[in-house]
Amino acid sequence: MGTKHNSPGNKARSPVSIFVVLGLCCFFYLLGAWQKGGFGKGSSIDVEIPKQTDCTVMSTLNFEPQHNYVPEIDSSEPKAKVFKPCDAQYTDYTPCQEQDRAMTFPRENMNYRERHCPPEEEKLRCLIPAPRGYLTPFSWPKSRDYVYYANVPHKSLTVEKAVQNWVQFQGNVFKFPGGGTMFPQGADAYIDELASVIPIADGSVRTALDTGCGVASWGAYLLKRNVLAMSFAPKDNHEAQVQFALERGVPAIIGVLGTISLPYPSSAFDMAQCSRCLIPWTSNDGMYLMEVDRVLRPGGYWILSGPPINWKTYYQTWKRSKEDLKAEQRKIEELAELLCWEKKYEKGDIAIWRKKVNAKSCQRKSAKFCKSDDADNVWYKKMEACITPLPDAMNEIAGGELKKFPARLFAVPPRIAKGSVSGVTTESYHEDNKQWKKHVNVYKRINRLIGTTRYRNIMDMNAGLGGFAAALESPKSWVMNVVPTIAENTLGAIYERGLIGIYHDWCEGFSTYPRTYDLIHANGLFSLYQNRCEFVDILLEMDRILRPEGTVIFRDEVDVLNKVAKVVGGMRWDAKMMDHDDGPLVPEKILVAIKQYWVGGGNEGNNTSYDE
């Protein structure tokens, strides 16, 4: 498909595995050479690097004095534990969504498809292997349309969804034509129809939510219109749908509307859709639609395509009676009215509602409002059939008016302007942005691949105000901004900047498949989690979700990073610690690590061999 790669049988070394051979004295020289030569296993640089082993060329990199390497502190403590590879059966291991554990929970309201994490004694403390033959994913935008079969070796969707144009198998790749169940002719045409009603083109709509996303083609095609969609779907019989989405370079998580609240703040999304997602919107007194209302911004849009819309045409195809479908649509209309959503469009397979912008424009007959005074406190909170009150209006818009994107990226978020984020003022917000622009420039000098398509899927594990993601903002990449549940709740302000993210507790596994992120940033994360859970468990989870030859940047206090570096020493990562941007006297340091390329091998069960 254009880019040539070595076959799994060809043992040409990848650039990062060569780091091990030459030693870390060449770490950044080789990284620079890799940037010039190509990306990943099988690139032309594989041949060139072994010819260049003279580490005196390090001086040509011209690192500034304040980026001196920090030597390891001698210690009488035992050396780092070496972590062994997990058995090859765990290649696609997702700790909190494993099928065997899921099946022990009730099926009612999709409880069994929600997060169910293993107890301490059942945690895997080994390295998740990549599948044999794993290849560096295609660069964006080619990755939107092509995925290597070796990376996600699951063909069931090519058969099950063949007529719906989800995915096709061609040679050694999957091709994604951009179709979906309700847009078999392609996502572009579908989005064009939405854009005739919703102001997608002018930056008014920036963040979107796709509930039951399939392979996330809606989100994939929104990206070229500068709309960032958070897509989710359960880990179910639609094998690897979220894994495909992330392999394509599209934001997605494993998730479901079930019994607990979605891990997003209130008033987060400018637009949300259900494209034949088959979520029972009218059940449980409309609880699921009320949850969408909670996360939808005042003035935001909700799109429903699929049952029961256009039931007169499809009732036989759906094998449901006219009366049943008519009653379902009537109930959805009633719920929408209760939520103060105004219907803006219904034609063919698509219906669109818009949420009212403030409480004054909403005349409800009667409604049950949620009693909680914090609509953003949602981690493992039981979902309720109640309506989240609209926030106080600022300039006639509940919660405050947002600028159009990209202006909103650095504008002061309304939550900060009205003092809702503890300890953050307008002045400190601007200072935070200034600092992160400086930090990211330093990162780019350390690793010139940052800011290129080599790092498409990026995660910030402790996102703060989203300054790291804002400084990186580019069509070449996207950032999953994670706000730890034990940190100050800043996720609402992050969404108001036109960025996306999620709440998470790093003492547990993240809701994603292995090998889904190219670059992970951890600022102050390990200081935050000291005495809360084991560093080992967090680092092994980072290894699980990091792609082979992916990069991690840690920024933390030196004593904390020394503990991290010791664990990393046994994880098949190559790491180097450097001084802070402002010099060696600052106790905060930077640790940069790159995961080596290695894969699981053979079919020998517990006697599995592993290749580097």
TrEMBL record:
Residues passing through the membrane, by range: 12-34
Q: Which UniProt keywords apply?
A: Glycoprotein, Golgi apparatus, Membrane, Methyltransferase, Signal-anchor, Transferase, Transmembrane, Transmembrane helix
Annotated GO CC locations? endosome; Golgi membrane; trans-Golgi network
SUPFAM superfamilies given in the database record: S-adenosyl-L-methionine-dependent methyltransferases
Q: What sort of enzyme, by top EC class, is this?
A: transferase
EC numbers, comma separated: 2.1.1.-
> Domain of life, per the record?
Eukaryota
Which GO terms are recorded in the biological process aspect for this UniProt protein?
Answer: methylation
Instruction: State the membrane topology.
Output: Single-pass type II membrane protein; Single-pass membrane protein
UniProt protein name: Methyltransferase
Which GO molecular function annotations are given, in alphabetical order?
Answer: methyltransferase activity
According to the record, the signal peptide region is none
Q: What compartments host this protein? A: Endomembrane system; Golgi apparatus membrane; Membrane
**Pfam families per the record?**
Methyltransf_29
User: Which family is annotated?
Assistant: Belongs to the methyltransferase superfamily.
Query: Known PANTHER family for this protein?
Result: METHYLTRANSFERASE PMT14-RELATED, SAM-DEPENDENT METHYLTRANSFERASE
